[in-house]
């Protein structure tokens, strides 16, 4: 049965102004994928924290940045490089990582969907089953390890994602 995972991307790693290297969420890489046994059919929910302070320090607003439904996973850097070249020129795969790709044509645009209001309700499988908030904000250290969401929490994220897409279709939102 497919699983859903919360995958943290630090704001600074997204590039200038928090923008990813591509407009679409087609790829993710992590040494954690093997440990999580990531496979085709799983969903990776990219999240980030947009800093609230001008100096870029956290805390920040928890944002749902992207949704990647995994079609292919590899630990072969050559295969990852070949697939990456289809999307982004001069983008090298992360070393010592497993690489996950969306189905070609199944990529979704990156977004900035606020989910601070959902943070208290998100639940994960395992010993540390929830996020601890301080003054209403998530400590990014809790997000370092990729975490498997419960089906109820995955449904919360999917509902918010679909609401955002509905706003886009109505012309009241932007990616």
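Q: What amino acid sequence fits the structure above?
A:
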């Amino acid at each position: 049965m497919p699983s859903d995972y919360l995958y943290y991307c630090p704001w600074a790693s997204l590039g200038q102004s928090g923008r990813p290297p591509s407009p679409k969420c087609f790829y993710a890489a992590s040494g954690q994928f093997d440990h999580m046994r990531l496979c085709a059919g799983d969903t990776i929910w990219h999240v980030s924290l947009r800093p609230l302070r001008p100096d870029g320090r956290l805390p920040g607003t928890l944002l749902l940045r992207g949704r990647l439904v995994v079609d292919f996973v590899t630990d072969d850097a050559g295969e990852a490089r070949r697939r990456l070249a289809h999307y982004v020129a001069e983008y090298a795969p992360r070393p010592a990582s497993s690489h996950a790709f969306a189905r070609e044509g199944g990529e979704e645009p990156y977004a900035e969907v606020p989910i601070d209001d959902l943070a208290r309700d998100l639940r994960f499988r395992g010993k540390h089953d929830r996020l601890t908030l301080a003054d209403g904000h998530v400590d990014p250290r809790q997000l370092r390890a990729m975490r498997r969401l419960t089906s109820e929490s995955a449904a919360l994220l999917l509902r918010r994602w679909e609401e955002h897409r509905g706003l886009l279709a109505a012309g009241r939102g932007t990616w």
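Q: And what stands out in the fold?
A: The longest strand covers residues 60-74.
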